[in-house]
Specification:
Largest sheet: 3 strands, antiparallel
Strand order of the largest sheet: 1-2-3
Number of domains: 1
Number of strands: 3
CATH class: Alpha Beta
CATH architecture: 3-Layer(aba) Sandwich
Number of helices: 4
Order of helices and strands: HHHEEEH
Distance between the termini: 43 Å
Helix content: 40-55%
């Protein structure tokens, strides 16, 4: 079992890892499928745009809570602790709750995303070496 500190370190390690090839929905679709589509279990308000997202999210969150709803809110960036990004009914997620949420995603990501990245790296290495990429490991042409 991972500790809250190791789970949070893992999450923080991902913050600077977005690369151009990371964009697109294919990997996210595979990841949420691997997790059993948790996004379908709750109503979600996704706020996009250039300015005003934080205040808009805060107003929606406040209104839903005032109406008796249980509300989770994710905002970015954080100021001092990553827990600030994850609010449940107006309170920061505890280290333990955050670790409990991170670990299943980490395991699913390692099953789905990491193998795809390894194959991409192997393909790039093959191209650099002048050989054709192959999904058959150890097979010679």
């Amino acid at each position: 079992m991972a500790t809250p500190d190791s789970s949070i370190r893992y999450l923080l390690s991902l913050l600077g890892s977005i690369r151009k090839e990371s964009f697109g929905l294919q990997r996210m679709r595979r990841l949420v499928a691997e997790l059993g589509h948790p996004e379908r279990a709750a109503g979600i308000v996704h706020i996009a745009g250039t300015n005003g997202k934080g205040s808009t999210a805060a107003m929606i969150e406040s209104g839903l809570r005032a109406g008796g709803r249980s509300v989770g809110l994710y905002t970015s960036p954080h100021l001092s602790r990553i827990n600030e990004r994850f609010l449940v009914n107006g309170h920061e997620a505890s280290d333990e709750a955050l670790a409990a949420a991170i670990e299943p995603v980490r395991r699913a990501s390692e099953r789905v995303v990491v193998p795809a990245m390894r194959l991409r790296a192997q393909s790039a290495a093959s191209a650099k070496a002048g050989t054709a990429p192959s999904s058959h490991q150890g097979r010679r042409k």
